[in-house]
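Review form for a predicted model. The reviewer records the input and the model, then writes brief findings.
Reviewer: anonymous (R2)
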Amino acid sequence: MAALKPEVKAFIIQSLACFDSLAIVAEAVQKQFGIKVTPQQIESHDPTKASGKGLAKKWVALFNSTRARFQTEISDIPIANKSYRLRTLDRMMTKAEKMQNLALAASLMEQAAKEVGEAYTNRQKFEHTSPDGSMASKPTVIQLLPVEPKHE
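Model under review:
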């Protein structure tokens, strides 16, 4: 197992901090740097694993700062943005229509409608006003009806 250059180490550590799997990181390192690395070699750069406990402090700091930024900066991920998702669904729906795949097009339109209607969120809507628009609640009216006793 050859020693890795600092830029390769940084790439591996940042990828692991972004929750990429060992296989994904290995493939990315192969593509980016032309270096074949083993899953064990990659795992040794993860300070959350037993094999990464001896990692230098500067690499642990890089891992922790990358992980913190990854978890807080959701706006950097395009699919987390509603307008991006809708534009992508629109492109997919247009392609499905051109291919005469109407079932897929209808499914994509339904998904877009759910996205706009916030069907994929945890938000709950509460009605705080009465039907007449006021905040006053209507009193409950109980009407008693006379009942004739039964004679046997």
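Findings: Helices lie at 6-17, 22-33, 39-43, 57-72, 82-98, 102-116.
Further findings: The mean pLDDT is 86.
Recommendation: see findings above.
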